[in-house]
Design brief:
- By secondary structure, the chain is of the alpha+beta class.
- It contains four helices and seven strands.
- It has helices spanning about 1-25, 40-50, 55-60, 140-150; strands at about 30-40, 60-70, 75-80, 80-90, 95-100, 110-120, 125-135.
- Strands 1-7-6-5-4-3-2 form a seven-stranded antiparallel beta sheet.
- A hairpin with a 2-residue loop joins strand 2 (about 60-70) and strand 3 (about 75-80).
- The longest helix is centred in the first third of the chain and has 23 residues, at about 1-25.
- The two termini are about 40 Å apart.
Length: about 150
């Protein structure tokens, strides 16, 4: 039984070592951009993006949001992974907002830029481009982010 346990510990240690090594080969920083069109005018889309208290109604990953300050816009999100504090660093209504994670000591961080522009090809529609610029410090979390969570 002791030999079996020792073999299992060695295999587990080797697996964690391989995951950590592979994660250390991945870049610490990342950037991802997505654009989507809505059948709504830019003012309505801007209002939805900047009404942080309403986020749980359309962001299923959130349990609640607490508005900390309206100026600068600062809030706390509570989700299945715990709490995260954010603050708007750049505010150019009704077109651009940049929100940044303010928590220190986390294994990840970053910001999201929201660009809201009228869709000139189709009247009454709005395009929203969201760019996430983030980082993940722990190589095991980097591995999981790429190969487990996608």
């Amino acid at each position: 039984m002791k030999k079996f346990m020792l073999i299992m510990v060695v295999i587990l240690g080797a697996a964690i070592g391989c995951i950590a090594f592979m994660g250390s080969r991945l870049p610490r920083e990342h950037e991802a951009t997505m654009t989507i069109a809505f059948r709504s005018d830019p003012a309505a889309v801007w209002a939805a993006i900047t009404d942080v208290r309403a986020y749980p109604s359309w962001r299923k990953d959130l349990k609640s949001v607490e508005l900390v300050s309206p100026v600068p816009l600062t809030w706390k999100e509570v989700g299945s992974d715990g709490e995260m504090n954010l603050k708007v660093d750049e505010w150019q209504p009704p077109r651009r907002m940049v929100a940044t994670i303010t928590d220190e000591g986390r294994p990840f961080g970053g910001s999201w830029e929201y660009l809201v522009v009228p869709d000139t090809a189709e009247n009454g529609r709005t395009r929203v481009t969201i760019t996430e610029s983030g980082w993940v410090s722990n190589p095991i979390f980097r591995f999981a982010a790429k190969y487990v969570f996608g």
